[in-house]
Structure formats: structure tokens, C-alpha cells
Amino acid sequence: MVYTFLIISITYLAVCIAWTAPALGQRRTLTQKAIFASSAESEMKTTTIAIVGSGAVGCYYGARLWETKEYMVKFLMRGEHFTASKEKGLNVTSVAGDIYIPPKELLAYDKVESMGKVDWVILSLKSTSIEATPSLILPLLHENSRVIAIMNGLVDDDIVRLLEGQDDADEPILTQCAAVYGGMAFLCSNRKSPGHIDHSYAGKLTASLSRSSNLYTDVNVHKDAIISLWKPTKGFEFSYDGNLVRARWLKNLWNLPFNGISVAMNGITVDMIVTDPGLRKLAFKVMDETIQIANSDLALRGCSTDDYLGVMEKKAMMELSDNMGPYKTSTMLDLVNRKPMEVKYLFRKAVDRANELNVSTPILDTLVNQIEFLQRIHNLY
Question: What is the value of pTM for the model shown?
Fold first, then answer.
């Protein structure tokens, strides 16, 4: 009797195991799949980028990033530019290849609060709007976000101070994000109409680290990160410069003579500067003074003479301009359209730095005084 009961119990147990084993295996397989899926999703997380200042510069580089299909690129836009882009898409015509972002694929926003946290912020405001930096980008930042300020002039320390709420006299200390870079764009690009950007010449983008948060003991990670960001793009050259001061002065070597003369002459194009003997000579003289300021600044910071600007850089800037055609500089367009001009950071700060370094710059000083006069009489602040 007992023996029969044992036989029945064992048989029943075997049947139960036979029926439940596949289910257990299926559950185990589903659990493993869920783990693997979660891991893959984590590894494949799309890098998010916010373009803050979606004008001629921001839209061009933002569209190039979007074109890679590797990033989620969000554009902060305003007014008619936002409306037209949302309805018809963003159209970038370019000598390096056109880009069209259809309305259904364009992530355009008119409120920064709607954009969410992002991994990268490309800040391409005009320096006339620099005071708005905290309200525009702090809502986008987490501790590992990085910011690239593709802007004209000596803006870098003030950007960090504004983000941190520090005074002008304070040494900038970054805590709001992982890193802030300076971005220098040698780009001929204009906004032709709402929703339409036209890139006509050049395009090289250089970036240099401005500040790193104390969370990163090895700042080389920031160099690697930004090189990796731009690696998939096409249509322009990207380079990393380990010396931000030199990189900013190199951009000033073009901006001060060509942006400056185009404004001081009450709104002329670059081709008029390079083809007129007197203005071409003037441009060279402004470049000579800019080089003097730059090299004195680099020397004070203990940089090697190998980093100094010289004849080679001056020649390269003139050759760049010789092939530019009737390009309308950004500050000249602001003058003729009676919009606020980038005078403080683009021009005045360069002269102030020369005075601090006891470098004589009579020609640049005269040029900047002329520009400030035009700013005053037209109230372009």
C-alpha cells in the first residue's frame, strides 16, 4: 500500500516538473531578455544637444550635427524663425552641401523650459545677449552637461561668472555643469529669411576648454568628448586647440580688422576692404596691433613663443578674406539693420586688454572709437 502511494507521488511530481520546467525556462528567458534589452538601451542612449541661439551660426552647426543621424538635436528659436521652421522645416543651403530638416523631424522649441536636460549646449548667441545666458541654459544643464560658446570676442570668463552668479572680480569657478568651451567659427553664414540659412564660404570650427568642474580631475576627458562629438560631421573642419587665449586672439585677428572696418566705414562688404588699397593697408595695420596684444597676453600667461601669432597667421587671414567675396559681416549687418551691435566684447575688451598690458594700439583704438560713435548715435545697444 505504502509502496503504491510512493509510486503515485513520484509520478505526479515528475508530471508537475515536466509541465512547469518550460514555463520556468520561459520566464528565465524573458527575464534575461529584459536585462539584455535594458543594458542595450543604456548603451545606445542618444546624445542630446540643444542649440541656443539658432541663427546663422547655430543653425548651420546644429544642422550638421542633425545630419549625422547620431544625435537628438533641439533648436531654441524665436518669432518668425520659429514659426516658419515649424511649418516648413529648416532649410540650410550650403556650398558644402544643402541640408533640409522636415517639419516632422525638426525639434524646434520657443521655450527653453520645454526642452529638458541635455548632454550638450551649443551657445551661439550674440554677445549683446550674454546677460540672458543663465536663464537660457541653466534649465538645460545637469552635472555632466557640456557647453560650447560659439561666440565672438573675449566672452569666456563672463559666461562662467554669469552661470555661477559670480562678480566680475571673481576667478570663474564652474559648478553648474561639467565643462564650458570657447568656440571660434570661421564661417560665412547669414540668415536669408525665417527658416532659411545660407552658408556661402569657409566653416572651420575650433574649440578650446575654458573651464572644467572639480568633478573631473583629468581635463583630457573634455578634449576627447568634444572631438568625439564633432567626429561624425561633414561639411567643415573641426579642430581642438589646447590654448583658448591663443584661439580667441586668432579669431580676433580676423574680426577686429574686417568686422571693424566694415562697420567703421558705415557698412561695407569684405571684398571692398580687400580690393581698396587704403583699406587693405589699414586691415594689415589693425592685424599688426592685434598680434602685439595677443603675444603680450600669451607671454604674461607663460606661453611658449611657439604659440605666438605672426606673419603666417596674418597672411592666412588676408587670404581667407581675399576669397570671401561680398560677404556682409555680422556687425555690419547689425549696423545697417539698426540692431544692437557686439561692441563691448568684440572690440572694446580687446582695447582694454591692450591698455592693461601697456601695448600701444593707436589705430585699433581709433577704429573702436568710430564704432562706438556709430553705436551711440543709432542707439544700437
Answer: 0.88
